[in-house]
Amino acid sequence: MTENHPGDHAGSDAPVSSTAANLFDLRSVIALLFGVYGIVLLIMGIVSGDDPENLAKTGGTNLNLDTGIGMLVIGALFVLWVYLRPLRLAPPTQD
Known about the structure:
Layout: H1 18-23, H2 26-47, H3 52-57, H4 63-84
Helix pairs in contact: 2-4
Keywords: Membrane, Transmembrane, Transmembrane helix
Transmembrane segments: 29-47, 67-84
């Protein structure tokens, strides 16, 4: 015979929220990280883009700006992926 403890939710009949599952989806977290780092690099590329010393290090390209734009595009693709293919939770099984 098993006892139910207040912190034990394994046997509860409470429905799992699909919104909460989608919020903590790994793809959402990765999209957020790419977005934040992309914005930081984009700002750095705009602010220090004309510095001849930085341009000489990268062969004449503004690497921060290019990488920031690329990271924002990748983050947007992850967001698109989350919306086009949302998580589908399996229905609870009755034991």
